Amino acid sequence: MRAVPPYLLTDHARMEMARRQIKESDIARILALPEQTERVREGRMVYQSRIKCGNPPKLHLLRVFVDVDKDPPEVVTAYRTSKVKKYWRTEQ
Question: What pLDDT, in 10s, does the model give residues 22-39?
Answer without folding.
Answer: 999 999 999 999 999 999
